[in-house]
Every structure is written in C-alpha cells, then in structure tokens.
Amino acid sequence: MTTKHEQVIQYIKDLPVDHSISVRSLARNLDVSQGTAYRGIKEAENRGLVQTIDRVGTVRVEEAESPKYQAMSVGEVVSLTNAKVFGGEQGLDYMIRDFIIGAMKVSSIASYLKPNLLMITGNRDNVQELALRHDVPVIISGGFSPSQRMVDLANQRQIPLLGVSFDSYSTVKIINKVLVERAIQQNIVLVEDIYVPLDRVKFLFQDDKVSRYRQLNEESNHTRFPVLNHNYEVVGVIAAKDILDANADTPIVEVMTPSPLVAKLKMSVASITQLMLWDNLEMAPVVDDQGKLVGIMSRQDVLYTMQFNENAAYKDYRLEILLNDKLKR
C-alpha cells in the first residue's frame, strides 16, 4: 500500500506541464494534511518535477535529464590529443567512459568490447576492424595511418577512426587524466547528496508549546528540531538544553535559538561541515532559496560520508598508480 507522501508525488507526476500547484489545493484534492502536501511539493521540487517562480507560484515542469559525469565525447578526445580524424566524423559526439589498449590477442579482445568504450591500438588492421564492427571508436597511436578499407568501414558505420602521434601509454595518460578529474568533480559531495528529505523530518512551529517538543522527542528520540513559521520558513532551532527550565505551556518561540545556521542543497558538504563542527552542532536545517525547510543534515551522516569518500578517493588513486605501472611494463 502506498503512503500518502508517495500518493502526493505520483499525483504531481501525473499533472500536465505548466499546471499550477499549491499546498492548499493539493491537500484538498488528495484529502491529506497541508504538512504532507508541503513535503510532497518540496520532494517534487528536489526531483525536478516542479519549480517555484517569483510572482507565478509553483508549477509542474519538464523533468531535466541528470548530468553525466566521468565521461567525455570523442570530439573532446580529438581536441585533447590533437588527433586526426580519418573516418566516422559523424560519431564525434559518442560518449566514452572507459578505454582499452588493443595489445592482446584478437581472440581475447572481443569479450572486453562494450558500449562507451574507446579502443587505443597501434598499426593492427584486425584489432581496428574488430572494434569498429562492435561500434567502438578507435585511436591509432604511434603516428600510423589506417588502410583505406578501415576508413571506409568507419565511414560506413559512422564510428570515429582517429590517429595520434603519441604512443599508447602517452595517449592513455592524457585521456585518463581528464576522466579522473571528472570523477573527482563527481565526488565533491553536495548537501543534496546526503541530506534527510522533508518527508522524514520532524519539526515544530514557533507557536507550538514545549509539551509538543517533548512529544516529538519521545516519538523520535531526537533532541534537536527545526522551528518554522506557518510559511514553512526556518526561524529557529530548539534543543534539549533550551527547555530545561521551561514549563509545558511555554511557546517554542520563547525558548528556541533564533536565526540558526542553515544549509542549502547546492552547498558543498565540506563547507557546511566546518561550520557545524565549529559551533558543535548535531543538526542543521536545509532550506531552499526562499528559506523554507526542505530537510535536515546531521553531523553523523556528514562524518560518515566524508570518511567514505576519503576511502574511495584513496582507492581511485591506487587504481591509477596500478594502471600506470601495468602500462609501463
């Protein structure tokens, strides 16, 4: 059985592009609370399903394609290596994510051929033909030129056939450097990569009472919550230390910490983590450009993610060293 939150997301997905959406209308049409409707809209915004436009409101938009990382086009390879295009010029927008050195037996190469691959080989017609017939672009290293038969095959299949003056090792170094840099760029962790989305967040309104804080504390075992006004803008944060001397009927606004540190989705985790550690914060609200709550970021998740990425980066570095050592042999 789907949850109410999932029903809201599906409802938004099914709306036509440019359709206006509001918390009240969504809550009314789906018979859910305004809080559930708001969480659904914010999740839809994070997924690129809706967009909030000044003086227009929130509308359904076309879903944007996710950016592709750790890849480059054959055309970029041509620019990087000053390669000569012998044939298959129509395929220069082909994207590559990996490469193979065609120095092994032909019978062993076929099992390695796959989409988004680039073949780097020397003056070997049989390897060039095998790659082209598998729709894999080819770079001929060492300043060699292909036979006319290979040029005709590349043009026929519209798969690039290139030539460079470098040896295979130097060609690999140039291409691998760019792929590694793009992998590093991909591994710059943003808040949007690790934050806890709104549908999993408990929060308080500024006119709630301390008794409501204690109720949320018992339900979630959390001790720190964002505090919002009724436009869902973050106005404060409240923690256990703030209510030590407060009675149950005290309004949250009287004991909360106002104007707290907040994070935005496109901030790097490294930058916000420094601020959280300096202020010894366990949690930071995550807000959109209007200051409205879209989720939270916990210090525990941040530290785990940074530790994982350091290990991953070390593995990538070791992999590059092993690759270089292998090619030098």
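Next protein, fold it too.
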Amino acid sequence: MKKGLVMEGGAMRGMFTCGVIDVLMENGIDFDSAVGVSAGATFGLNIKSKQIGRGLRYNKIYCNDKRYASIQSLIKTGDIYNVPFCYGTLPYELDKWDINTFYSNPMDFYCVATDIKTGQAVYHKCNNYDTTPAGEDIKWIRASASMPIVSRPVQIDDGLYLDGGMSDSIPLKFMEGQGCDKILVIETQPASYVKKPQKYMGLIKLKLRKYPKMIATMAGRHDMYNDQKAYVKSKEEAGDIFVIRPDAPLNIGATEKNPDELQRVYDEGRRIAIERLDDLKKYLA
C-alpha cells in the first residue's frame, strides 16, 4: 500500500500544517510520497527531514526580524520574504535544515510552482541532494512560495516561476496520479470556505503584463480553488481520502509578526490532528 500526503499553502496559515505534521512525526506516521504548495512546501519539507518543531521555532524567533520578511525587503529587493536570509542564512546557518536526513529519507517530496509563461503548474521532485543555497531543489521550493506582486519570479534554467497555489492550490489529483492507495490532505481553510475573485487584478495585469497566460490563471484562480475544495470534499465523503482542516478561519496575517498568533495557529493544527489521530491510523492501516 502506498500512502500520500498533500499540503495546501496559505502563507502563515501554514503554521496549522506545522502543528499537524509534528503530531504525525511524533506518532511515527510516515508517507511514501508528499507534495507541498507554497507554505506547504517551505514548512512541509520538515516532515521529510524529520525535524519536529522546526517550522514553528524559526518563525517565532525571526518573525520580527527585518531580514526575514519586511516592507524594506520588498522595496529594496522586490521580495517581501528576503531571499538571501530566508533561503540561505536561516536554513543553512541559523536553524539548519537537516539535508542529510531529507535526502536519505525514501519519501518522495514534490513542490508545486507555476510557470508564468504558460500559467500551468509544474511539479518538481526534490532529489538533487543540494547542500548549498545555490541548489536546484531550494530554488524550486522558493519558487513554490513566491507570492505574485510581493515576490520576483524565480528563474530556473530557462523558465520563470511563481507560487504554485496560483495553478494547483490543493494537488490531490497530482497525488492520486502517483498511485497512492491512501491519501491525507491537510487544508488550511475550513470546509465551508469559498474563495472570491482576486481583488488586485489591475495591479497583477500591470506587473505581469508580459505574461498573459499567468494573468488568465490568476483571474480564474478562485474558480479553480473552489472546484478543488469541492473535489476534496467529495472524495472525503466517499471515504477515499482523509482530510485534516481547521474548524473555522484561522485569521492570521500573511506575514504575521506576533509570535503568540503563530503559536495559536500551530496549536490548533496540533489539537485537531490529535483529536483525529485514531481515525487517521485506522484509515491508513
């Protein structure tokens, strides 16, 4: 039996995912394949490197550090999350990503990015054994979490990429395509959530005017997302997948500066994961 894990993004709603995956690791629940989108990739990679608590820890420590996420960084570099710090100094020096464990773990780990030339999702398998911030896998993970408007597109080879959530927010169908028999989906919005049309299409059209297909993807993102939520719900009701999601909106800022708020959302992920743990074990058995 092959088990898969799907992790939705959502900026600092990803603290919910951190809480869930920490409970999974504490209880020895493993997966053969995992896919993360945006924050689901940047925080979710800790399940492959088996680093319980890391996602919460470094976010609480550095959330008020201007080197991490700030308007100053956006103005100076074009990235609200400062690239050299977030994808270099932090994971390779300050709170080290356990690269050896990540790459020795047999779990397949994918991240989703959006090709801004085509507007289509691209699924990258992280298996290049990168040991420096210049590595290919860390670039793909960064691309997956590079939010339009407040991030520069990430160049990888001849391509340009942005946030995977624009083209495939909840990649359940991708994971089904990996031949998984049992799949856990971690969502960061409640079951009743309905996404509304993008409010900033004027600014998006201005910033991405050279990439009409990306503009079209973002204009239709709410429809894609709502269709995916409905698909997840239908598969859940049929008993084909297992879903862990918040009971209510998490109401946390995309660049949350309050460590207590980060802890609150993380604790909510832990609470629901623990509450549903026995049912999840039965499903995966």
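About the second fold: The beta strands are 3-7, 33-37, 108-115, 120-125, 154-156, 159-163, 182-186, 242-244.
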